[in-house]
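Why this split exists: single-chain examples teach little about how molecules sit against one another. For that reason, every record in the complexes split bundles all components of an assembly together and asks for one structure covering all of them. Below is a record exactly as it appears in the raw files.
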Amino acid sequence: MIQLSYLDYLAVEGKSWLHRLSPVVKMFGVVLVLFGVVTVRSIPGLLALYAVLLSLFLVSRIPLRVFPLTLYPLLFAFFFIFISGFQFYFIGLVFLKVLSSTTSVVLLLATTPYPAIFAVLGKVLPSLFVTALFLTYRSVFILLNIFEETQHAIYLRGGFQWRHPWRSVVNISNAFGHLLIKGIDASEEMYESMMLRGFKNKIHYRGE
Amino acid sequence: MSHIHLPDGILPTWLWVSGFVVAIMVWVIFFRLIKREDLGKRLPLLGMMAAAMVLGASVEVIPPVYHINLIVISAILLGPSLIFLATFVVNVILALFGHGGITVIGLNTLILSIEGIAGYYLFRLFWKVLRKLSLATFLATFLALVVSTFAMILVVSLGTSHYEELMHHEKGTIGLESGKEKETHHEQPGGETEVNLNRWIKTIALPLFFGWILEGIITALMIKYIHRLRPDLLRLETQKA
């Protein structure tokens, strides 16, 4: 989640042809990939899909340090393999499905600024939902800033130490409590400034 | 952490489509219950609490099995109607980072909102009966997590026949057409051929139990902290804890 701001920076500053492609086309592409992930049940088919996505990743000149983001969900897929009794074919299928869907989504996020994504979503989803989505996305950045400050405060109070579990839990809880209070204060200020700008339960996007 | 961390394409289509249909229906009902003015005022708070849940999901308490999700505390602050919209939004954002598939957003929303709504009402109930803030929060969080985990296990178990189909689907290519391909059940060289949900449940049970206790304690301490600084946010009947 910490990489969110970096992804956003890449989406805005990137100059590849994938960055310049219309957000509608890219989002349609993600839907197509998801359709493939849901319906294709052969390893060669999924391998081909993943290869296409990997080549798009390289062509769009996204830095390699973003690539581990596409591997992160494998952690969760790993637990699902206990259901199958460690069957290789099934594990391969699950892992390729995970990699394909995540790579497509990371490609979208790293090449499309989020207001552009929300503007497209606003055309098909209820405005209230898209507004909530936008405010949440915005709030993640606000909270990340507060989180950085809070990390210093936790560190000064002893941080997390295995030798003192109770004190550590209290420190973490107070830090999260502090994060919430600060976040709520920020949300109240945000609401007031939005009201001053004529907010009426809907955010309008400029066609960029 | 009681939502499904399953990737896309693993759950049967009927199941995740039903998840979306039910989630949308529930959302429409809750939407009618919320007052318009109240909604406008609380949207930024909703966004902030949803963002806190997203951040909470990135803090692994017992890596990689358990992360805190802050649903119950968000439900206490937002109320039962808004927590549904908040969980919907959280699941969309988490799915964008591969934290559960995009197709399972509907099901995850239902599971997490069960946790939130149960947590909200249990908190109110325990507060009324016990009048002890920390204990009421701990019990409400712990029980809400138990309820939603059972809901998650139920959903995963509903797809058993589909997992078996996937495991035996060596030659098949496209999932929509499966009549003949279902017959080609082979013994796989890599291991067992039957779905074993019990093993999966046993693998996750112990870390989950510790996670429930830990999240209960963290939530209780957070509520205590919030009560100390901003008691108005909790909207308790009496401000005496």
